[in-house]
Amino acid sequence: MAEMFTFRMRAHAAAHFEWNDLLTATWLDTEAKFQSEYTGGDDGRAYPVTIHGEIRGEGASLNEAEPRLAGAISSVLPILALAANAAIADPLAVAAHGLDLTNPQPFRGYRTPHADEWFPPGKRRFNIEATLALVEAVGRHPQSDLLHRCVEAYRRALTHWVPEQRLMAGEFLFIAAETLSRFLIESRAASHGMTPKNLAQLLKAGSQDALSEQYLKAEIFAGDDEAREAMEEASNGFEHGYMSVDQVRGLMEPVLERAMGHVRAALVAASGATSEMAGRLLADNYAEPRGLIPENHFRDRAVASGRHGAAAPRRAQHHSRVGVEQTRGGGHSCRERRSHPRLPDGRETGGTSTQHDS
Q1: Residue 137 has pLDDT above 50, yes or no
Q2: Dihedral sign of CA atoms 340, 341, 346, 349 in order
């Protein structure tokens, strides 16, 4: 006899829900809820740093239900990342257990970092209505599985959106673009009740490969041949090993942010979301990709010669939880803001704070 079980997770994220926002996504037999976890910083403020998700559904046992529910809730995170154009890390399990508490239930708990260990927080906020519309559009698409693969590749690009990893961001971005071209062919062929090969013949493209190239040029990269050609050449050179890493970076960097915008717009359009909701997701305040900026701990030292010629540290100073801001060019800058920390209800506390932005 089937019983009800729940699985809970959290993930470090660069975009968050407002304090009272709760996003609920439903499938035929399951329901998942997402909200941001607000946690206190050293300055007395409450910051959203992680997204908490819970999914409930039937299962024959905890061992059967947990991996299935975990996979289902994890599949929503790439869509959230696409909606906010902001990175969301791989989820970490928190707990899984039975729900009928009138009888003893199996429980499995996991040790995960507390939310306040993932500073600095992100400032971007989800448009909850448009985000839910995107989740529903992707979930009900007839070729949902293939579309999910496109969106997951875009999420991977976002998780590498830091200066040291932008080459891999570009690689995953072009994977998303190529997979999306295949999705467009297969979904449009299915809507016409024909094979992809026959669709290519109908459109006088010559072949499926040629039709894929047409979609890449006209729809996925929106006619931006400079960006498409640079990304394709860089991806091929890196994948097949005939270019140096510096050459690959040199091709990608000038066009990478433009290419991210093109591919994201094409993904949102391909989802089938309404024009109103797509317009909200593609608004200017979501145009810039946001990565996950790690907290930096570092130590300043003065080094001098010791008695036996060895280097000895002097005047050590330890710094932690530095406020980091990602600039449009992908670089990092630090700043300190003098202010009176505020609690979530707006009450001020005394003292000086370092503002954490990203």
Answers
A1: yes
A2: negative
